[in-house]
């Protein structure tokens, strides 16, 4: 296993639609090593989820560890329902130090397969549902800031082009690089839990 470099904006891989993992890769030792490395990377930066594009992998895969539930989903299909909520706040280690409340469905369920090709399903509400929606968005080339509306959207756009944000992103990437001690470089994932 290895701690992988996590991509931050404006890396174009974060805006790319992922390809499905092919059936021939399911069960392979290479895929299992990748998933183990994604878990290790996510945990090294205290993330609660990590999607393939965030580590430069253009395939439909994500890992998570939230609310006592740890898992991974390959080729997920998401279903959402319930009221649209704006809480709790979201962050993303690919968009460091910005926290907002994008609208998300209260409930979500993803179905897909695990690394062995066995069917998996995860369902939740609140923060867990928000995480599922956030990670699937990554696989479709969207960041949580793309879901913002109104003044929050304008504020996020201004923040992401500011020199202060760019300097903070460089500083965080440098710090994470040293903390992780990775031979792969610096990094950032989904978000850290915020209070």
Automatic annotation (TrEMBL):
Positions contributing to Fe cation binding: 92, 134, 138
Record-linked Gene3D superfamilies: Peptide deformylase
Catalytic reaction equation(s): N-terminal N-formyl-L-methionyl-[peptide] + H2O = N-terminal L-methionyl-[peptide] + formate
This protein's record includes keyword Iron: yes
Stretches the record annotates as Disordered: 172-195
UniProt cofactor note: Binds 1 Fe(2+) ion.
Active site, renumbered: 135
UniProt KW keywords: Hydrolase, Iron, Metal-binding, Protein biosynthesis
Cofactor(s) demanded: Fe(2+)
Listed EC numbers: 3.5.1.88
Family statement drawn from the similarity comment of this UniProt entry: Belongs to the polypeptide deformylase family.
Alphabetical list of PANTHER family matching this protein: PEPTIDE DEFORMYLASE, PEPTIDE DEFORMYLASE, MITOCHONDRIAL
UniProt function note: Removes the formyl group from the N-terminal Met of newly synthesized proteins. Requires at least a dipeptide for an efficient rate of reaction. N-terminal L-methionine is a prerequisite for activity but the enzyme has broad specificity at other positions.
Annotated protein name in UniProt: Peptide deformylase
Naturally occurring in which organism (per UniProt): Enteractinococcus coprophilus
Encoding gene per record: def
